[in-house]
Amino acid sequence: MKVIALNSSARIGGESKTEYMQEHLLKGMQEAGAQVEVINLYQKKIKHCIGCFTCWTKTPGKCIHNDDMTSEILPKYLDADIAVLATPLYKYSVSSIMKTFMDRALPALMPFFVEKDGVTSHPYRHEIPEIVLLSVAGFPEDSVFVPLHVLATKYYNNKLLAEIYRPGAEAMVRAAKAGKASSANDIMEATVQAGRELVEHRKISKKTMDRVLKPFGNLETLPPLVNAFWQSCIDEKVTPKQFEAKGMVPRPPSIDVFIKIMKMGFNSKNAGDTNAVIAFEFSGKVTGDCYFTIKDGKCKSETGKAKKPDLTIMTPFEVWMDILTKKVDGAQMFTEEKYKVEGDITLLMKIKELFGR
To answer: From CA 240, how far away is CA 71, in angstroms rounded?
Structure first.
C-alpha cells in the first residue's frame, strides 16, 4: 500500500504540532506495512490555480502550470492508495498552501455535471486516493473544526476515509515532548494506533479515536498561561520560535498565573524524596501569599499563608518575576538583599532543580 503524506505546515523541523501528529500517525501506518512518502508543501513550487480550465479543455488532465504540482505532487497523489492531508487550522480552515494544493488537483476531475441525491458534482477523470485529513488547533474546543469538516466533506465526500482534529494541540504536544503528562503520551500512542488501523482496516475504531481526541488540560488554566506566553513574546519582541530557542519563561502577571507556571515547571525526578513546604510572601505591585507542598514526587499549590513552611521567601513580586524569567540572577538578588528568606536555606538553592523544567 502506498501512502502519500502532504504536510502544509511551514513550521517543520521540531516546532510544528501538525508535523508531530503526522509523524505519529505515519509511524503506525509504516508499522502496518505501508510504503510512506512525505512531501512538505512549503518546500515546493506550487502556483495558484488561475481558473483557465485548460486542464479541462485544451490539455485534458494536464495543468497549464509547469511546476512541482504538475511534475511531481499530482502524479504521486494519484498513484497513492491513501493521502494524508496534514494542516494547521488557519482561520478555521486549511492553510493557504493546502488550499492551493486542493485547487490544483482540479485536473483529476472532468467538467461535466453529475447529479446524485439532489447534489451536483464533477466526475473523476482519475481515481483519487482515499483521504485522511489531519489538523491541529491551539484552541481547546472541538467546535473550531466545524468549518473544516464542512469543507472536507464537500471536497472529498465518499473518498474521506477519516478526519483527525486535535484541539489544544500546543499544550498537549509540549507535554508529550517533555514526557510530563501520561495523558498526552496516551494521545500520541493512540495516534500511532490510528495509523495502524487505517492501513489494516481502512477506518479508525471509536475506542482509538476517543483516545486521540480526549480532552487535555484544564480549560480554566489554559487561557491565562497562553496569554502570559503571548504577552511575554510581545514585551520581549520575540517570535514563539525565538522564545523557545532562548529557553524563556512566560512572565506571570498575577499570583494565580505564577502558581500555574511553577507547577508546570515542577520536576518530579529532581524532587526525589524531597518533602517540604515552600512559601512565598509577595509585596509591591502584586501582594499576597502562596505556597507549594512537595511530597512523594508531587507538587500541590495553595494561595494564602502556609502553617508551617520549611522555607519562606519574602520578596517584591516584580523581583521574583525577574528571577523566574531569568532577567536577573537569584543568588545575586539575595546577596543584595532584594528579597529575604526564613527557614531551610538549602531549599532556596534547590529551587532551580525543583521547578526548572
So the answer is: 35
255 pLDDT more than 90 = yes
Sheet holding 340-343, edge to edge: 298-303, 288-295, 276-283, 311-316, 340-343
Gap between the Cα atoms of 68 and 47, Å rounded: 9
- pTM for the structure as a whole: 0.83
Q: Give the tens place of pLDDT for each residue, 192-202.
A: 999 999 999 99
Strand 130-136 to strand 82-88: parallel, antiparallel, or no bridges (unpaired)?
parallel
Contact 281, 309 (CB under 8 A): no
Q: What residues does each domain of the chain span? A: 2-212, 222-354
Task: Tell me how far apart the alpha carbons of residues 301 and 264 are, in angstroms, rounded to a whole number.
Answer: 11
The C-alpha cell that represents 75 in the structure block: 502524479
pLDDT given at position 244? 83
State the Cα–Cα distance between residues 281 and 304, nearest whole angstrom: 9
Q: Please, which residues bridge with residue 3 across strands?
A: 36, 82
Query: Which homologous superfamily is 222-354 in?
Result: SCP2 sterol-binding domain (3.30.1050.10)
Looking at the structure, give the CATH architecture of the domain made up of residues 2-212.
3-Layer(aba) Sandwich (3.40)
Q: What is the pLDDT of residues 150-205, one digit of tens each?
A: 999 999 988 999 999 999 888 788 777 766 567 888 999 999 999 999 999 999 99
Tell me the C-alpha distance between 326 and 108, whole Å: 55
